[in-house]
Amino acid sequence: MADAFADEVEPTMTINEYIEGLEAEELEADLVLGGDEGKDCTYPNGYMKRQAVFSCLTCVPDGSAGVCTACSLSCHDGHEVVELWTKRNFRCDCGNSKFGDPENSGNSYNHNFKGSYCICGRPYPDPEAEEQVEMIQCCICEDWFHENHLGLCSSGEVPRDEEGEPLYDEFICQNCSVPCSFLNLYPASIWAPSRVQAPVRSEVNGDGPRVSDDAFQGEKSGKEMGPDKGSVEGKGSCTECRGEEAHVLSKKWRNALCECRACSEFYAKKGISHLIDREDSLEEYENIAKRKRQEKMQEQEGAELNFLNTLNHVQKIEILNGITDMKNELQSFMESFDPSKPITSADVQGIFENLAKKRQRLL
Questions:
Q1: What angle do CA 244, 247, 250 make, to 5 degrees?
Q2: Which of 141, 174, 183, 269 has the most beta carbons within 10 angstroms of its beta carbon?
Q3: Per-residue pLDDT tens for 192-203?
Q4: Any idea where the UBR-type domain is (predicted)?
Q5: Which domain holds residue 171?
C-alpha cells in the first residue's frame, strides 16, 4: 500500500537548501540583467555595449522593436513579452517612433524579436517539443541555435566534460563563419577540444603564408597570423565545409586575435570589431553583474548597520529579544516536530501565532 502512494510524497528540502536555491536564482537573474534592477529606462544612455532586451509583441507584433528591463516591467507589464537575453549596441526603443520618438537606426533586429529562434524558426520554450533542447547563442549575429542544429561537421556534438559542463567559451554559427574564416589561420588552441584535429596544409592566395601543422599546434602566435595575411582555402577539421562549418571556440580565444591596424580595419569592414573589445564578451558582462551584486549586498549590510545605529539602547534590546524569541520558538518547534513529516504552511503560521501570543503576554 505504501508503494501506491510513493509517487505522491512531496519533495522535501532543508532551510539551507531552500535559501541556497533562492540565492542561485537571484544570481542567475542578476547575470542575465547585468545587475540592472529595472528602475530606470536606459533610453537616455544611448546604444549600450550590452544589455538585457525584451520584445513586446502586444505593442509591436512584427517584432521590430526592443525594450530595456525597466520598460518591460513598467510600460509593458501584462503584455506578450519575449525575453531575448542580451544584445550588444542596442538602445531601448520604448522612447522612439515605434512608441513615440525618432527611431533608433543603429539597432539590429532578427527573428528572435518575433519569438522564433534557430534555423528551424521555433519558439523557446517550444510548446510542441517533448523535451526542450538546450540552445547556444552565436557571438556574431546573436541568434540562438538548438544543439542539434549547430552545423558541426567535426563531431556533431558540443564539447563537454564528463560531468556535462561545456568545454567551450563561444560559438559562431555557419552563416557567420564565412566572414570569420580567417580564424583558420590561428593556432589550434583557439578551438574547443573537439576541434583540435590534424590540420590540412593549405596555401593562402597561392604565394601567401602557409598554414602548417605547427601553426595549429600553437607553436606560432596568433599575433603573427591575422586576417590581413589572406584567406585560407582549407580547414583544420573538415575539408568539405569550405569555411561554412560552425566554430566552437575555447576559453579566452579572443585574447589570441591580432589587433594591428590592418586587422582592426578588416574587423571593422566585416562588422566584427566587437571581437577585440574586452568589454563585449558575456564573461565580462557577467563579471560586471557580479560586481554590482556585491556592491548592492554591501550597501544593504551598511543600511542595516546604519539603522541599528539610529536606535536607542532600549530599542536595540527589544530587537535582540525578538530575535532570541524567534530562535527559541523555532528550536522548540523542531524538537517536538516529527522529522518524517513535511513542514506545512499551517505549521509556519502556528509558529508566528505563538510568538504573537507571547508578545501580548509581555505587554
A1: 165
A2: 183
A3: 986 444 343 333
A4: 39-123
A5: 135-277
